[in-house]
Amino acid sequence: MDMSEESIVQIAQSLIHEQAMVQFQGEAVGAIAAIPKPSQAVQPDLNYGEIFIRDNVPVMVYFLMQGKAEVVRHFLQTCLSLQSQQFETRGIFPTSFVETNGQVVADYGQRAIGRVVSADATLWWAILAHMYVRRTGDRAFALQHQVQVGLQCFLDLILRPSFRGVPTLYVPDGAFMIDRPLDVWGTPLEIQVLLYGSLLSAASLIQMDLVNKGYLNPKSKIQNPKSPDPFTQNQINQFHLSLDWAKRLRRYLLKNYWVMSKTVQVLRRRPTEQYGDAIENEYNIQTETIPHWLQDWLGDRGGYLIGNIRTGRPDFRFFTMGNCLGAIFDVISFRQQQALFRLILQNQQDLIAEMPMRICHPPLSDEDWRKKTGYDRKNLPWCYHNAGHWPCLFWFLVVAVLRHQHHHQRQDRQLMIEMNGLLEDAYQLLLKQLPRQHWAEYFDGPIGNWMGQQARVYQTWTIVGFLLVHHLLKVNRSDAQILDVPSIQSLL
Ligand code: GLC
Question: Cβ distance 380 to 347 under 8 Å?
Answer without folding.
Answer: no
